[in-house]
Structure formats: structure tokens, C-alpha cells
Amino acid sequence: MKRSITLNVNGEGRSIDVEPNETLLEVLRERLGIKSPKIGCERGDCGSCTVLLDGRSMRSCLILAVEADGHDIVTIEGLSKDGPTELQQAFIDNNSFQCGFCAPGIVLAATELLARNPSPTEDEVKEAISGNLCRCTGYDPIVKAVLDVGSGRARRQRSGPPPREESTG
Amino acid sequence: MPIAHEFEYAKPETIEEAVGILNKHGTDAQVLAGGTDVVPGLRDGLVSPKLVVDIKGIAGLSGIKREENALRVGALATFTDLIESELVQKHVPLLREMAMTVASVGVRNRATITGNICSAVPSCDSGPVLLVLGASIHATGPNGERTMPVAEWFTGPKTTALGSAEIVTSVSLPIPQEEHGAAYVKLGRYRGEDLAQASVAVLALPDSEYRIAFGAVAPTPLRANRIEELLRGKVFGDALIDDAKKLVPDETSPIADIRASREYREHMLPIMFERGLRAAVARLAGDGPAYGAQLI
């Protein structure tokens, strides 16, 4: 039996009737036209369907749409409403994409990391994205992009060369 | 691939309501919490309930609380909740070390420790740790509440002592005495999503008391009573460790599966046991690697 649910997707309330066996991933992609979460392994292994649910990265393939009723969902489309975020820009600057299939999931996973831990170590970055598989073997530039944001290097590069290296002031 | 199986969905607001629904529908109902096992199960046809009962609307099943000499972990507490809990970090750092090895952030944000033991796969990370801590499992059913020791919980691969129409409401973890050392060592193929190929939990207490449990190397997680007996009261050192390692094959019965061969598991188990034991004993002495460090 269809149930009426309301999802707060990227800051916008979306009411929709769903069957209990529809996953959040299917509803986002096929019913709401939000295509950044990808259909990959569909068992929680690959991370390509990652969305932020109430600020936490989660696998939208492992969540029934009815479970998400009343919750906040953020996808890449919401993240970059006003142009690319600093992290997305760092991905561009570091050539962190090849095919791009894993990128939405990794950007969201790293966005969650940076929100909780603004200056992560390399190990912490690797741990945060360890559940996001990249088959183009692009991990190094991805990790570097996240570290660039965490260290403030991305911001300095965008605003031109700093007058001096690293001020601890 | 969409979930082909069709089912109804219920979201009760009280435990009594949930138990009533389960009692009425029997094996046609499936409890849903984090869903990281249930949803793939629905997709693969491993479970085909007529009704999915989402317990996330029930108040009082969340959070981690301190009680007298135990931590009470609510049925909806996720692995991320465990990792971020100051109570866990202070009193049972072993639990945090284990939680950090479970899958990856995106799964830990959703998956519950209670769901982990209810799914009861032989490789579940929670099993060995709850065994060495002597956890108790609280459930509510048609006949009221009852509490089961974790030693009686796992009855076989994917089966537990939970009765039909019963719902686990929380898990109690006795807080080990302040002076203790512990370690959880998990062997996996990679850091992201993998289930354990083999795992071992060690709790070292003063006066040469030990509790040891293995995971993924028998039909259920299990306590290694003979090894504990051998170690009890003895002077710790290389000779004792060698004797204890010789008992590992007697305590475990690994099989070959998609994640590892039997031979590989047999080879790695004594090595993992030694690393875990040494780390736990060093931590008991206020030394050793920080909790959460890679031991293998």
C-alpha cells in the first residue's frame, strides 16, 4: 500500500507517495530526478549512493524511502546550489575525478568528515572514504583534495599566493 | 535492482504496540532498525516478510547510559554513537576499538550494535567483544521483559535465543574494573566494507585473569575457555604465549568461504591471538598501542 511521505531534499520539502519496498535511492533518482546518487553495488559496499541524512553520510540503497519520511536529505545538487563548495573546487584543482561515478559519494563523505573534523590527518581522510570505492584508482588526488581543504591550502591557492608560508599567529 | 518483494510497513510508537504487531503477525513480520542487513536481505530474498516493523519511532530505545556498574546501550544506538560516546571511550574503550572496525562511516552511521547481534552472522564484530565483557541482552515480548546473558544468545549461524514476537530493547555491558587492558583484532581484506575473515577479542584483568573470544571461525562467536584456563594465574611471557597459541586450533573450527580459505584462517588465528594478547597485557600495564591502532 502506498504511503505519503515528505522528504526535505536539499532544503525543499517534497511530498510523494511511495511503496514500502522503494528505496530512498530509487525515489531520489527515478521519482524526484536527483541523479547524483548512483546505483552501484546496491548492498552498501561501494558508497556511490551516499547521501547526507540529517547531516550524516548514509547509503541510500540501504534505506527504504518510507524510513526517510520527515528527514533532511542533502545530495550534491544541494551542496553546490551556489556554485562548487571549497571541497568540490579542490577536487577540480587536483584532478580528483576520472570517470566521476564515485565522486558524489566521496565528496559527501568528505564533506561530513570536514564538518566534524575541519583539519583531518591523511589517515583520517582515508578512513572516512574507505567505504567509497573508486575503480579509476584515483584515491591519491582525492585524498590530496580533502587534505588541501583541511589544511587551508585550497583557500590560499584560490586567493593567490600568501605573503609568507604558514603563519601560526 | 529494485526490491521485488512487496510488503507493508508499520512504525509503532511504543514497545507494547510493536510487540503486539509482532505477536499478531508472527514470522510474517520483520523488525527493522538500521536496515543495513534487512534491506539487502529483502533485495536478495533472504527475508520475505509481509510486514516490516520499523522500531525507530519508539521512544526510549536510543542512547547510551551509565547505570551502576554497567553501560546500557539502547537498541537504536549505532556504531557511530558508540565511537562518539565519552562513556564508552572512558569505561569500555574495547567497544570503541571494535566499532571502528565495522564496515565504513556510511554504514556505521546507520547500523546498530543490537542489529549486529540480532543478525548473528558468525563474523559479527560485536559478538567476541560482548562475550569477553559478559554483556546481557534485554528483550521485551508478549510475556514481558527478560534478560539473557550473551553466552546463551548465539545459537547458530544467523540464529539467536530471541523468541518470536520479542524485541531487543538494549544491551548491558558490565564496566570492567578500571584497571584492565583489552584488544580487538580483526582480519579483513580491506578497510572499507569487509566482514571479518577472523577476529579475536582479549580482556586482560589484574592477577593474570583473561577473557578471550573468537569470531568468524566457528558457527557462532565463542569464548576460548581452555586458553583462559591455561593463562590464569601464570607468569606472562613468550613461553606461556607459545603454549596458549597451541590451543587455538582446539578452540576454533574455521571453514573456507568467499572471504578466506580455512588454511589462511588457521594460519592467521594464532598470530592475531598473540598480537591481541600482547596488546591487552601492555594496555593493562598502562603501555602498549593506543586503542584503535591497527594491530594486524
Domain unit count of chain A: 2
Rg result of chain B: 19 Å
Order of helices and strands of chain A: EEHEEEHHHHHH
How many strands appear in the DSSP assignment of chain B?
A: 14
Please describe the biggest sheet of chain A, giving its number of strands, its sense, and whether it closes into a barrel: 5 strands, mixed
Question: In words, what does this structure look like?
Answer:
The complex is a heterodimer of chains A (169) and B (296). With 169 residues, chain A is α+β, with helices and mostly antiparallel strands. Chain A has helices spanning 24-31, 76-79, 86-93, 103-116, 122-128, 139-151, 153-158; strands spanning 3-9, 12-18, 50-53, 56-59, 72-74. A five-stranded mixed sheet of chain A has the order 2-1-5-3-4, with helices on both faces. In chain A, a hairpin with a 2-residue loop joins β3 (50-53) and β4. In chain A, α3 crosses α6. The longest helix of chain A is centred in the middle third of the chain and has 14 residues, at 103-116. The model of chain A has no long low-confidence stretch (mean pLDDT 93). By secondary structure, chain B is α+β, with helices and mostly antiparallel strands. In chain B, the strands form four sheets. Chain B has a five-stranded antiparallel sheet. A four-stranded antiparallel sheet of chain B has the order 11-12-13-14, sandwiched between helices. The longest helix of chain B has 23 residues, at 262-284. The radius of gyration of chain B is 19 Å and the shape is globular. The mean pLDDT of chain B is 96. The chains are: A alpha+beta (169), B alpha+beta (296). The A-B interface holds A 1, 3, 19-23, 26, 42-47, 50, 53, 56-59, 61-64, 66-67, 105, 109, 112-113, 126-128, 130-133 and B 1-9, 11, 32, 35-36, 39-40, 42-43, 52, 54, 56, 80, 103-107, 109-110, 190-193.
